Amino acid sequence: MTRIYPAKAIHAHYPLPPSAFVEERCGFIRNPDHPLPPSVPRRRPEMDPLLRLPLTIAFFPFLLSHVSPSHIPFTKLFAFGDSFTDTGNTRSASGPSGFGHVSNPPYGSTFFHHPTNRYSDGRLVIDFIAQSLSLPYLPPYRSLVSASSKPTPSPHGVNFAVAGSTAISHDFFVKNNLTLNITPQSIMTQLSWFKKYLESQGCSGMGPSAQQCRDSLFKDSLIWAGEIGVNDYAYTFGSTISSDTIRKLAIDTVTAFLESLLKRGARYVVVQGLPTAGCLPLTLYLAPENDRDDLGCVKSVNEQNEAHNSVLQARIAGLRKEHPKAVIVYADYWNAYREVMKEPGKYGFRERFKACCGTGEKYNFTPFETCGTKLARMCEKPKEYINWDGVHLTEAMYRVVSEMFLKGNFTHPQLGRLLR
């Protein structure tokens, strides 16, 4: 049974309202010529046989028959998800009430050298994916819209991810008296934004011209569905709502979201699973000391996320059957993160559990003095830390994870087959 923690303690995850969010200043710049690090060694992640069977035996040969052996010339990238993928959609006052200091230094200090409303010291996985495709970093959707106009066209794609987003609708949390001041956006909100974007491009409706527009849009577009669902579980800690209920509702919603994209013509979709959130300083800070796994992470939370991912993969297998012309790639965030935690030195990390930016013992994390506040301090070498601010990862960790997705064995089928 998953342990529950006081709702008040989880509310500490979102301690202060944002005073102001700066405008996204780097959303649509060209990628600099920074070579990616050497390929991560090919090593099979540890997987439950039940997970491995439907993915690698029953469907793997079937999937490869639909993957072109030649390079797919992706010219557009569309992203969805939460703070692990958000490149600036929380710049406004309607963003999440926690980590509002993301628009303060030292956020962005490692690469952009100023805050960009990315929840890291630099680039995220989605930035490294864009870079690998020789595309500009994705502009956040909210930088393309205003109250009186349609979204500005973005020829190389858009990022719809919002920090604090849930899979389940915000109304669910309100109806169940989970009145934390959290992001009201969900994955379905992001889908509605995407529909508005399609409409602005002339790709909505049922007519032949709209269908032709969608065909043209999706033929060389990669859809990146970043991890979504960690917040759903976090927001219900301390309540009577079971993790089984959250898992069912969250995965039902994500499945409907993916189904909607596929029915509109999406051909290439990457779906990230949940990471090992039990290894985050916030989770370690809240959990009792006797709730630990073999890595020293919070056992109950990691098991919860693993169970979530197992059901998600089964749903993806079903979508592959229903949409045989589409390629749906599962990105195994859980095992990728776990692999780094097992041998951090192999990937250049010295510190597994402490946050690089923060304050307090023993994880350099205190909920009311998070990174970006006056008392928080930044470590000297962020590249040696896995975690950045207690909840989000360093650019160095995002780089390693992106390499594991692009060149390792942590995507099913292998993402590299689409990109070579």
Strand and helix layout:
Elements: H1 7-11, H2 49-58, H3 60-64, E1 76-80, H4 125-132, E2 157-159, H5 170-175, H6 187-200, H7 208-218, E3 221-225, H8 230-235, H9 243-263, E4 268-272, H10 281-286, H11 299-322, E5 327-331, H12 333-342, E6 351-355, E7 357-358, E8 377-378, E9 385-387, H13 395-407, E10 411-412, H14 416-419
Parallel strand pairs: 1-2, 1-3, 3-4, 4-5, 6-9
Antiparallel strand pairs: 5-10, 7-8
Description:
- The protein has a domain at 7-23 and 72-277 and 295-336 and 409-419: Rossmann fold (3-Layer(aba) Sandwich), CATH 3.40.50.
- Helix content is 34%, strand content 9%.
- The chain has helices at residues 7-11, 49-58, 60-64, 125-132, 170-175, 187-200, 208-218, 230-235, 243-263, 281-286, 299-322, 333-342, 395-407, 416-419; strands spanning 76-80, 157-159, 221-225, 268-272, 327-331, 351-355, 357-358, 377-378, 385-387, 411-412.
- The strands form three sheets. A six-stranded mixed beta sheet has the order 2-1-3-4-5-10. A two-stranded parallel ribbon has the order 6-9.
- Helix 4 (125-132) crosses helix 13 (395-407) and helix 9 (243-263) packs parallel to helix 11.
- The longest helix is centred in the last third of the chain and has 24 residues, at 299-322.
